[in-house]
Amino acid sequence: MSPRAAYATLLTKLTYLPGVLVLHHSLVSVGARHPLVVMVTHTVSQEVRDLLTRRGMLVRSVEHLKPSEGAHSLSPHDARFGDTWTKLRVIELTEYDRVVLLDADMLIMRNMDELIELDLPQDSIAAVHVCACNPFKLPHYPDDWVPANCAHTAMVHPSALTSPPRITATSPRPYFLLNSGTVVLNPSQQLFDSIENFLFTTDISGFKFPDQDLLAAYFEGRWRPLSWCYNALKTLRYIHKPMWRDEEVRCLHYILAEKPWQVRPGEGGDYEELNQWWRKEYEALCADMQTTDSAGWALVSRAATVAH
């Protein structure tokens, strides 16, 4: 694989700045050999862009991407996903041969540069399955999101690390769905143009999760399942205990509305220990920035609803 490779994430609002900084800090901590590219929209100030650059990230300006007016709407519960269509702009990072797209609410626990070398056809992607258990019984989730239809339910340790769920013609519908927190891809302007056309010409009114449902639909039958450990949704630790092992997590994904920088210590409930993992990395970042970039740290402190 060519060394022209990178990790990438999207930042559209100040409130996710602590997440992006911790994501980058954790990539550096585990010895990742490739840079983090932060795609930013016009809603991100020059002050924030300069801070990202000082911290060693590569900043790329991108235009917002969204469906045609009236083509799609989100449940009020999931309004935070409104900007996630823009994640698809990662496919336009054609200065790289391989990119691993990561959400800003992730923590890298172990080096996963092997994803850069993953055997992947040019017109394909790799990702981890959704968890379709719907443990909180959210009424706007699809009716077939039940444990019996979740691809992770049959997974057990250690085979789950090397043999992710298989998709067959008779698999339940959720087996065909991916979580777009971690996506391995080969950038191509031609591919982006095709996906953009798909966005504007396909009935997307039933999509519950913008970018990831579109990716699952566009790449149906062509996306490669990855092991859960590359996109370890925090809920999996409690819902899929036979599969989960703390020490095997490469990339921890803090899904759901409350992010670890918005929750006070001791108020994390079932996720308190996992939030502590994030805070440990955040505190290391804090110690560094307070010494080397006090102005930048003041900006981060303003961005975090609750930092400590």
Automatic annotation (TrEMBL):
Residue ranges of the TM segments: none
InterPro entries: Glyco_trans_8, GNT1/Glycosyltrans_8, Nucleotide-diphossugar_trans
Annotated organism of origin: Fomitopsis schrenkii (Brown rot fungus)
Organism superkingdom: Eukaryota
SUPFAM superfamilies in the record: Nucleotide-diphospho-sugar transferases (SSF53448)
Gene3D superfamilies documented for this protein: Spore Coat Polysaccharide Biosynthesis Protein SpsA, Chain A
Top-level taxonomy: Eukaryota, Fungi, Dikarya, Basidiomycota, Agaricomycotina
Pfam families named among the record's database cross-references: Glyco_transf_8 (PF01501)
GO MF annotations, alphabetized: glycosyltransferase activity
Stored PANTHER family: GLYCOGENIN SUBFAMILY MEMBER
CDD domains: GT8_Glycogenin (cd02537)
Protein name (database record): Glycosyltransferase family 8 protein
